[in-house]
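Posting this for the archive.
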Amino acid sequence: MIMPYKEKVIEKKYYSIGEVADMFGVATSLIRFWETEFDVIKPKKNRKGNRQFTREDIDHIRLIYNLVKEKGYTLQGAKELIKGNSQSLKDRMQMLDSLRAIREFLVSVRNSLP
């Protein structure tokens, strides 16, 4: 029996600032501002000086976005929280992302029922 071909998702190594801004629905200037405010965002720069964000940078931006835009923390409050227990916050964000994905799946199953 021939097994069906399963397409492998290829993840990019670097993302441009425009791609990152689109992921979060914010302006590129906000990403640049957060880069200056938060030490955890450290994009590489290519020969032209363009920022190249890694998956880790994007995870940090997701954490900052959640704290500042969704939970209403001030920049100073977000900095202190990240400085104090960054790994705990990342774990919590991963758990929330997993729960959101499960919810989306369950809603789609419910909607497909007659």
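Helices lie at 17-24, 28-37, 55-70, 75-112. Strands lie at 44-45, 51-52.
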